[in-house]
Every structure is written in structure tokens, then in C-alpha cells.
Design a protein that fits this description.
alpha/beta, seven-stranded mixed β-sheet, three-stranded mixed β-sheet, 13% strand
């Protein structure tokens, strides 16, 4: 029998029923004041905290697992853990996941809507997931519960209800908190409470936890028992984005003329669409490979450029040069032409002594008369490995998919270092078991 591939956005009787329930609930929900976020911890920094039961094994289950941010966090911390189940509807995510973590084939699910989690009841200590956030994103359609994807939150809640973990972690975009004047979050918060969990939540930015990237997300913890918990306090950022870059880069990552013009535009810089050699990365996106909005790197001198001459204080910074001052390929060919058989002209650029500056320089290009300079370097986008590093994944993480897939998977992930801070602050080992 032929199998029918399911679309995550599809409509069905089941989804429509859930949507109606949620809409009715949202309409009847009394408008309350905004739910206050859980405070930040005071006192000893989470970096200094020790795990109380490092001998324990934490049994984890993840949904919307992606490339396993929480699993990588456990690896980096060297904590004993066992993956009870995981799943993602994206086939390429499964390739990445199985290449990097130990899990049985039968414990992987593809579509959470078909996943029966009751078999894992009492066998999972920690459930983690972030339902696809497009429905609640500030830059998305903001349809919330009217979008079929919004109902995937209820699938997460269902897995929590069926497995009854000691603690769960739900992650999403910060826009979730004020969507539909806060009603969306009120419904979700209410459901978590109805499931019997003590709910703590706060917006955290990855640049406050060791990763030079502006990425604000809501982190919601649910404890099965009443628990005193404050979120980890920010730490001073010790690294710049440049510290995460690779040394040797394939030429395919360097931009061509059109991309350079967009990326170097002052207008785009002012709107924070793009930046070059920024100290803190703009929020990483899943379509990084095809998007000129974001972060780019300027190499002032490299083996990919025609000279190894060192730059000095008189060489301009590419970030300060407006795109309109770059020559098009057509004009550049004219400028560098040596003339005709009857008329020859100098085509030298980057002169030690400038030619006379003329008032007509702004209006036209005249070979052998105007002054031209070149960059001893090139502008490029971030590589997939650099994107992974800026999400907290160490180079031990194996890349087994295409660049396109890796950019998407990195951009969709949770920042590992934020998870590490939360795991240390809550002392996750208390919730494990002795095996």
C-alpha cells in the first residue's frame, strides 16, 4: 500500500477540532494583567555551581528534536543521560541526529501527531521541545492558534501529559508572550498548570550566556513538584563573533558583486539588516545560506586575495564604505582597459601617489585620470560550521548533510550554552536516577 506523505500545515478534522477548542478557550479567557516572568537568580553564578548527583543518569525525551541541542548540552557537560525518545518531521534532521547521538530506531518518531508517548510513562525524567514557532513569531504571520502549526503546542502538552516527566522545558520565540495581547500565552500557561506543573518562564538572550549572538527566546520550565527556581543570571561576554570563525574558507562562501553591494549598504546597516565583522551576531536564521540579511565577514588579507601585503592605519575599513562607490563589472572592465591601438592610458590602481583630484570625479569614470582602489580581501557569509559554533555546538558535532540543510538546522536550533546555564542552575542531576 502506498504511503501518503503528511504536510505539517495540513488541515484535518482532528486539527480543526483542536483549533475550535482553543479559539473558544481564548475567547472566554478573562483578560488579566501580564503574567510576571520568573526572576533572575542572585548570589553564586551558575558557572560556579556543582552538580549534586553526577552519578545519576537523566532519562530525556525530546520532541521537535532538530539536531539535538539539549543532547549536545549533556554531552558538553559530561553528564550521564539516556535518550528515551526523539523525533522530527524533517528527514535531514534524522540524518544529523543519528550521526551524533545514540538512539534506537524504534525510539525515533517522524510526526508527533502519530506519536503515542504512553509507552514511556514513568520512564522519562525530562521532556524538552519547542513547537515550530512560525505561528507566534514577530516576523511571521502571527496567526497563532488560527494557524494549524499552532496546534503543535498541544501535541507537546499531550506528550507531557502522557509521560509525566519530573520536569519539562518548552522553548519558543519571545513574541509568544504578547501575541494576541497575551491571550495565547495565557492559554498555554493555563494548560501547563492544569497538567499539574509549577511553571517558571523568562526571556533569555544568548549573548548573556557566553555566545556572541542576539537571540532572545522564551524558556519555560515545568516542575512536577512545587519548586523554588530562579533563572540563571547573565555573565560577562568573553568572546566576539570573530573568535568563532574558521581559518581556511572555501571560495564558495565569498559574495559576488550583487551581494557585496547589498551587504555594504549603509541603509541596510542602519536598519540592522546586515553587519560586517560584528562583535555579536545578529539572530541566526534558518535560510542563512540564501539570505543577505544577517552577518558577514570581511577578510582584509587572505590566501584568496592577490597580495599578502599587510594593511595599516591608512587603509579604509570596508564597513565604512557605501555600496555606491563600488564599480560594476561593466565599468570596471572599462576602467582597466588599456585603451585603443592609437591611444594608450594607464590602468594602475592603488597608487602610492594619487592622481590629481577633480571636481568631476563624482559624475563619471575616466580611465587613467581618476583614482581607483581595491580591497585586499573579500566579503563572505558564515559557513555552516561557524553557524553551529554560534549556536553552541562544538566541532565534535558531525556535519553529514548539505550546506543548505545544515544552515536550516542550525538556524532552527536552541542555543546550547543557554541550556547549559539552565541545567546547571536547576541542578538537573537531582532529577535523574541511579542505574
Amino acid at each position: 500500500m502506498a504511503t501518503v506523505e503528511k504536510d505539517i500545515n495540513e488541515s484535518s478534522e482532528k486539527i480543526d477540532k483542536v483549533k475550535r477548542i482553543v479559539q473558544d478557550r481564548a475567547l472566554t479567557l478573562e483578560y488579566k494583567k501580564q503574567i510576571p516572568q520568573t526572576p533572575i537568580a542572585e548570589g553564586v553564578s551558575w558557572k560556579e555551581l556543582e552538580f549534586s548527583h553526577p552519578e545519576n543518569t537523566v532519562r530525556i525525551g525530546t520532541v521537535f528534536s532538530g539536531i539535538g541541542a539539549i543532547e549536545h548540552a549533556f554531552q558538553r557537560l559530561g553528564l550521564r543521560h539516556q535518550i528515551m525518545f526523539a523525533g522530527d518531521i524533517e528527514p535531514k534532521c534524522k540524518q544529523s541526529y543519528f550521526a551524533n547521538y545514540e538512539i534506537r530506531e524504534e525510539d525515533w518518531f517522524t510526526d508527533i501527531r502519530d506519536f503515542d508517548a504512553r509507552q514511556y510513562k514513568g520512564q522519562v525524567d525530562f521532556v524538552i521541545g519547542g513547537a515550530p514557532c512560525q505561528a507566534f513569531s514577530m516576523v511571521g504571520h502571527r496567526l497563532g492558534f488560527e494557524d494549524a502549526r499552532g496546534t503543535l503546542f498541544y501535541e507537546f502538552a499531550r506528550v507531557v501529559k502522557e509521560t509525566q516527566p519530573k520536569v519539562f522545558l518548552f522553548e519558543n520565540v519571545r513574541g509568544l508572550l504578547n501575541h494576541d495581547k497575551g491571550r495565547t500565552w495565557h492559554v498555554m500557561y493555563d494548560i501547563f498548570n492544569e497538567l499539574g506543573y509549577d511553571v517558571k518562564f523568562r526571556v533569555l538572550n544568548s549573548c548573556d550566556y557566553g555566545i556572541p549572538q542576539h537571540r532572545e527566546r522564551v524558556y519555560c520550565l515545568g516542575f512536577k513538584k512545587k519548586t523554588k527556581f530562579d533563572f540563571p543570571a547573565p555573565i560577562e561576554l568573553e568572546y566576539k563573533m570573530y573568535d568563532f570563525l574558521e581559518d581556511y574558507i572555501d571560495t564558495k562562501y565569498f559574495l559576488k558583486e550583487k551581494g557585496i553591494k547589498f551587504v555594504t549598504s549603509h541603509k541596510n546597516h542602519d536598519k540592522f539588516y546586515t553587519q560586517i565583522n560584528g562583535e555579536i551576531q545578529l539572530c541566526q536564521k534558518r535560510n542563512q545560506q540564501f539570505n543577505w540579511h544577517g552577518d558577514f565577514v570581511y577578510h582584509p588579507d587572505s590566501e584568496l586575495t592577490p597580495s599578502d601585503e599587510a594593511f595599516d592605519e591608512f587603509i579604509f575599513d570596508v564597513r565604512d564604505v557605501e555600496e555606491k562607490y563600488y564599480l560594476s563589472d561593466k565599468v570596471a572592465r572599462y576602467v582597466l582597459a588599456g585603451g585603443t591601438k592609437n591611444f594608450k592610458t594607464s590602468t594602475e590602481t592603488d597608487l602610492d601617489v594619487a592622481r590629481p583630484l577633480l571636481q568631476s570625479m563624482h559624475k563619471m569614470h575616466r580611465a587613467g585620470v581618476d583614482n581607483y582602489v581595491t580591497h585586499m580581501g573579500r566579503i563572505r557569509k558564515l559557513t555552516p560550521r561557524e553557524c553551529l559554533r554560534l549556536m553552541g555546538f562544538k566541532d565534535s558535532f558531525k556535519i553529514v548533510v548539505s550546506d543548505t540543510s545544515m544552515y536550516q538546522q542550525a538556524g532552527n536550533s536552541i542555543v546550547v550554552d543557554v541550556l547549559i546555564a539552565i541545567l546547571k542552575q536547576m541542578d538537573i542531576t537531582k532529577y535523574g536516577i541511579a542505574l
